[in-house]
Amino acid sequence: MDYLDPFLQLDHFQAQKPSCMPDHPSRGFQTVTYMLQGSIKYSDFCGNVGTVTPGDVQVSQSLKAIILEGGGIGTSTNMADTLRGKCRIYQPTVKSAASNV
């Protein structure tokens, strides 16, 4: 499986109706989300909670195992990549940059 690491995923998320992403595990990923319209609320078991609104950027690192949940309505573009094994020992982090619009 070494040929799959690192792995890069790009996606365009669009929810016309309120959606919910129930509790789900994540480990060893770094995700960058850019919100185009609408909003997404998120939380994790480490106490990180927030809302991503249009123009906002969020960087989330689920280094150790983490349980996430979220949901909302709107459109976003996401990029996720795997992190090397030695990075997976650190605590998860979430950093957000709010739009000035």
UniProtKB/TrEMBL annotation:
- One Pfam entry name: Pirin
Q: State the SUPFAM superfamilies in the record.
A: RmlC-like cupins
Residues forming the Pirin N-terminal domain are 3-64
Q: Which InterPro entries match?
A: Pirin, Pirin_N_dom, RmlC-like_jellyroll, RmlC_Cupin_sf
The record's family statement is: Belongs to the pirin family.
Q: What is this protein called?
A: Putative pirin-like protein
The organism of origin for this protein? Stichopus japonicus
